[in-house]
Design brief:
Layout lengths: L1 E3 L13 H17 L3 H13 L8 H24 L1 H20 L4 H29 L3 H32 L4 H4 L1 H15 L13 H24 L4 H21 L9 H5 L1 H31 L4 H7 L1 H18 L6 H18 L8 H28 L7 H36 L8 H34 L16 E3 L2
Antiparallel strand pairs: 1-2
Helix pairs in contact: 1-5, 1-6, 1-8, 2-6, 3-4, 3-5, 3-9, 3-17, 4-5, 4-8, 5-17, 6-13, 6-14, 6-16, 9-10, 9-17, 12-16, 12-17, 12-18, 14-16, 15-16, 15-18, 17-18
Organism: Streptomyces bullii
Pfam family, one: MFS_1
Main location: membrane
Length: 499
């Protein structure tokens, strides 16, 4: 029969250990997010140590993003089928083992394989973490604070990765950028076994195998296509073929999901206007943000001459402002305001910071020209991420919470892949055109090249700012949910089929 989620039974009493459980979930999520960038700074050292070619080094990053982004939907549904706590612990153990294997790698192939394994277990771990958080916090006020902390990790973890990666690479060894995950995972596993409570599983559920093949295959093709577009160019035959295959598989996937008895991704999740708006908002916001991380890392090191550690520390104000915007502003206002009243202004604020960065030059001052922009961007993203997470996962039927959480993470991964490839291509093309249009003698060549590089970054940042404004528009028009009522899980119930 069909009932409304949340109406059929009395509310489940709150878990008394939920705040300690949040610490465990936050620790695991931080580990996953850190790993998307912590290896970036270590990559030059790893390349020299293992003898990687310039053409193959990208696989240290691509192997992780391919497995992570491509398998998230599967990981989310597995969490729904076998239990979130079990998949959470399995993901932690597997991620730690893959990290240890990567840190001990003696050949490039072994490192690539270990990074792919990290992505596989991250695809199981990330949706389990978000799903456990969703089911543990049902009161809107507590939910706001919990998702504020989670949003900080999602938004600032990448920037923190640069700091940790710089410190470990400069003072220890690049291998510690992978080994560091082992003690974190051990602590998180112990905490999970002692503190986390697994919500009931949905009886009679089973895995949609055709949906897995179609959905995961389409996502892998798209993520791989965007990764290759960065180095090969958008018109390359392989890139176009990957895009075509990805779109075709995902089109068939959507058709199949409307007919499958137990779909991998129930389409009612996407038909909900607020939820679909949050997914699209997340993808666009992360698309713009990943470009920022890429450009500012190279700008600070290659143009201003910062060391890896100094580069990481330069991102600290961004991380701190995300923390303030998320936990002190967004978490306090979300129970009182509709989500779009935070989302749209937050992304406008972040876009304004990016517009300030379009004025940077080869001799910009960090304190007066870069720092104010990073603070604005951080505050804006702090206002954005927590309402997206909270609204996208609110009111979901219990058996669908894992796959819904996975869809949020998938929108992040796809957005990050598109942003890295698209904005880097724009920056490279604009920089090359700038250099080609300016005749230079032998003594001026290096200056022109540096100016061209910065010009490329500023052009790409204009595009990033426009994308962020588009995200603000999407949130303002699509996310129409009201402020959560005290004591309710969601603003509107979601249909749930019960056998």
């Amino acid at each position: 029969m069909s009932v409304w989620a949340g109406e059929a039974a009395d509310p489940v009493p709150a878990d008394p250990r939920r705040w300690w459980g949040l610490v465990v979930i936050a620790l695991a999520q931080l580990m996953v997010v850190l790993d998307s960038t912590i290896v970036n700074i270590a990559l030059p050292s790893a390349q020299r140590d293992l003898g990687m070619t310039d053409g193959n080094r990208q696989w240290v990053i691509t192997a992780y993003t391919l497995a992570f982004g491509g398998l998230l939907l599967l990981g989310g549904r597995i969490a729904d089928l076998v239990g979130r706590k079990r998949t959470f612990v399995t993901g932690l153990v597997g991620f730690a083992a893959a990290s240890a294997l990567g840190g001990a790698a003696t050949t490039p192939g072994l490192l690539f394989g270990a990074r792919a394994l990290q992505g596989v277990f991250a695809a199981v771990l990330a949706p389990s973490a978000l799903s456990l958080l969703t089911t543990a916090f049902t009161d809107p006020r507590e939910r706001g604070r919990a998702f504020g902390i989670y949003g900080v990790l999602a938004a600032s973890g990448s920037a923190t990765g640069f700091i940790v990666g710089g410190l470990l690479t400069e003072y220890l060894d690049w291998r510690w950028c992978l080994f560091v995950n082992v003690p974190i995972a051990v602590i998180a596993v112990a905490g999970a076994l002692a503190l986390l409570r697994d919500p009931p599983r949905h009886a009679g559920a089973r895995l949609d195998v055709p949906g897995v093949v179609l959905g995961c295959g389409g996502l892998v093709a798209l993520v791989y296509g965007f990764s290759e577009a960065e180095s090969r160019g958008w018109s390359d035959g392989l890139v176009l073929a990957l895009f075509a295959v990805g779109v075709a598989l995902l089109t068939v996937f959507v058709w199949w999901q409307s007919r499958a008895a137990v779909p991998l991704l129930p389409l009612h999740i996407l038909r909900d206007r607020d939820r679909a708006g949050c997914f699209l908002t997340m993808m666009l916001a992360v698309l713009a943000m990943f470009g920022l991380f890429l450009f500012m890392t190279y700008y600070l090191q290659a143009v201003l001459g910062y060391s890896p550690v100094r580069t990481g520390l330069a991102f600290l104000p961004l991380t701190a402002s995300i923390l303030i915007g998320s936990t002190q502003v967004s978490a306090r206002l979300l129970p009182r305001l509709p989500p779009r009243m935070l989302l749209a202004p937050g992304m406008v604020l972040a876009a304004s910071g990016m517009l300030i960065l379009t004025r940077m030059t080869v001799r910009s001052s960090y304190a007066t020209e870069i720092l104010p922009a990073l603070i604005l961007i951080g505050l804006g993203m702090g206002l954005t991420f927590m309402p997206v997470f909270s609204t996208a996962t609110a009111g979901v039927a219990p058996q669908d919470s894992g796959v819904t959480s996975a869809t949020v993470n998938t929108s992040q991964q796809v957005g990050g892949s598109i942003g890295t490839a698209l904005l880097n291509t724009i920056a490279t093309a604009s920089g090359a055109a700038y250099v080609a249009a300016r005749p230079s003698g032998p003594g001026l060549r290096s200056d022109i090249v540096r100016e061209g590089v910065v010009h490329g970054y500023t052009v790409a940042l204009w595009w990033a700012a426009c994308i962020m404004l588009l995200a603000a528009l999407v949130a303002g028009l699509m996310v129409t949910a009201k402020a959560p009522r005290h004591g309710t899980v969601a603003d509107a119930p979601v249909p749930e089929s019960v056998a």
